C-alpha cells in the first residue's frame, strides 16, 4: 500500500476542561486551521505555577481536538481505507463521523485504524482526534501536545500487502554476494479467491535493477497469506556509517495485467555481530559507538516532527563526530530513522522510560503492564527495514531492576523483542543508584566499613579517618553518587553486583547509566558479557573513551546529551547566584546540556569531544566567561565548563581570563597579540587540554600544536571590531512546496572579517511573507521568558535562529530581518513543486 501524508486542512481547537459540556452548551472554542504535524504545547502560556514546572520547561498540558472534513469518493466503497497516526501526545481517541474508531494511550507509539466501517461514501466525512495531555506531571521532559507527527492515509484494493508487513533482512552478507530475505503478508478482504502474481524488484543505490523475482500466489477470500523468499545480489554495495548505501524493494501485486497493489521500502545490506572478544562489528569491521542520547523535541519549533528538522539534527550530530544516537526515552520517529539511514548514523531505539514503577505522578507506568507488548510490536514494525537500527533498549533506569520480578519482566520483554526481530540486539539501560535505592544503607556501610549507627554519627564530621577516599566522602555527608571516588566505589560494590546480576544477565549486552567503574571490572566477573555506556557524564569523557579503546567488551559510550532540549529545565546550567540544577528555577525552560545548543550551534565541549575521539587534529580555543571570572558556579554532574569560542569581552579589559586549549598534541603554546603565554603539555596524558590565565585585552589569540617538538596545527580567535553588519545565513534557499520543508536562518552581528560579536544582545525581528510562514524563532538562552512563536527575540551569545516553513504553493518567500538601530537584511527563499 502506498503511504500518503494526510496533513492538510486540519482544524485544532482547545475545548477546555470539559469538552462534553462545551458541546452540550454550544460553547465554541478558539479554532485554528493548520497543517500537521503540530505541537500545541509550544504555543501554550508558560506559567510558574503549572504542575509540570521545570520538567516540561513550565509548559502546561491540555486537551486538544483536531478535526478534518474530507470527501470519501464513491469508488472508495470498493477499497480498504486505513489511517495511520505516527504520534499523538497523548491518550489519543479517534472518531469518524462521531463514532469511536480507535485510539492509543501511548504518546510515542504509531497506530493504524481501518476507516471503512465508519465512512459515508460519495459525501463529506469528519475525522476527529482528541489528544488529551491534561493530566500534568506525566513526563520528565518536554513532551509536546497534540498530533505532533505525520498522519498518513492508505487507499488500497481489497487484495493488498498488509501495512508495515513488508520486511527485508540480509541474513548472509559477503563482499561479492548477499542474500536478501523479503517477507510480507498478502491479505484479501474480499469473499472470492484471487490468483495473483507478486513481482519483487530490488534496485541498487543508483536506481538500477539489481534483482527481481515473480511469485504466483492464490489469496483466498477473507484470508491472509504469508510470503517469504530469498533473493541474491552479486557484488552488493554494503551499508555502513562511512558508506550508507540504500537499496529499494518494490512489490507489485498483479492480477493478469492489472496492478492491485504496490509498495516500496528502502533497506541496507549490512551484517552486524557482537562479542566480548571482538566487540561490535559492521560487515566484519569493529565499530566503537561514539554515541549521543537525544530527546525528541526540535528546539525552537517544539515537538513538531518534520523531516527536514530531524535530518538537520542528524547531520549536525554526525558532523560533530557522533556515529550513534540513542532515542531517549521512547521510540524514534520515522523521519529521523530515514535520516539516520541516509547519513550513516546508527540507532538505539528505546521502548520506554519505565515499566511498573512511576517516575512521575501521571506517567505511562500505570498503562505499561497492559500495553507494552503492543508498544514493542509497533516499534519493531516501524524499525525493521532501517539499516541504521542496530539495537533495541527495552527500558531506561528501571527501578525494579534489583528485584526478581523485575528480572522476570526483563526476560518477557527481551524475548518478545527477539521473537519480533531476531536480527538485532537487545539491551536495557541500568541505573544502579535508582535500582539499589532500597539497599543504600547496606551498601554505604559496606563501602565505609562502618555500622549504620556509626554512619549516622559520622555524617557531617571529619574527626575520624575513614578507610578510603570514598569512605571520606560518605562519612562527610557527601551524596554525590554521580561522579568521584564515592560514585566509583558504589558502582564497583559487590552488593550492587549481586543485586543487579539476574537483571543484567537477561539481555544480549548490558547498558550502564553512570556506572563507569563497572565497565572494566565486568570482564573479570563475567568474561562473556558485553558492556555499553548507555548514558554517561560529559565530564567523564576522557576516562570513558580510554576504556572503550582499550577493552573490546566495552563497545561505546552514549553521552548525555548530544543536543540541548526543552524540559528538565536548568539541569546543566551554571548558577552564580546559589541556585541548584534540577529545581524549578523560573523562568528557565531548557536543560542547558548538550554538545550542540538548542539552535544548532556546537558548544566548545563538542570540539573537545571530537579531539578525544581522534577526529580533529587542530587545537581548539575556548574562553571561560570573563564576566564571571573568579566566581565559582553551582553546577550539576552533567555540566562541563561555562565557556565560549569568543575573545570579545568589551568592558572587561584587564580582568582575568581563563583560556582552555583543547588538543591531542604533546604540547600547545598560546599567544596573545603575538606574545607567548607559555607552552604546556596536552594530549591524552593531560586529558587533552591545557589551561592558561591572562588579563583580557582585545586582539588575537593563537594556539599552536607541537608534535615531537615540531610546530603543527594552529587555531586563532579574534576580537570582533566595532563596525558590524547583520548576518543572516540560510542553510537552504530552495525548498519543496510540500507544506513541510524548512529553511534554518542563523542570525548574528558580525564585523567586516566575519567575526561574530557574541556580546551583542540587540533585539531581532523577523517578518515572513509570500509562499511560507515562520514556524519558530528563538535563541539558546535557557532563562528567557520569551516564546518560540514570537517574531522578536534578543540575541544570546551572539545568535538567534529563525525557522521558515514552506507552504503548498510555489513562489518566493521573503524573509525580512531587522534589528535595533535600523539594520536590515532581506533573504529570498524559493519554494518549488
UniProtKB/TrEMBL annotation:
DUF4982 domain sequence ranges: 658-711
GO BP, sorted A to Z: carbohydrate metabolic process
One matching Pfam family: Glyco_hydro_2_C
Keyword tags: Glycosidase, Hydrolase
Domain Glycoside hydrolase family 2 immunoglobulin-like beta-sandwich: from-to ranges: 165-270
Molecular function via GO: hydrolase activity, hydrolyzing O-glycosyl compounds
Protein family membership: Belongs to the glycosyl hydrolase 2 family.
Protein name: Beta-galactosidase
Species: Faecalicatena orotica
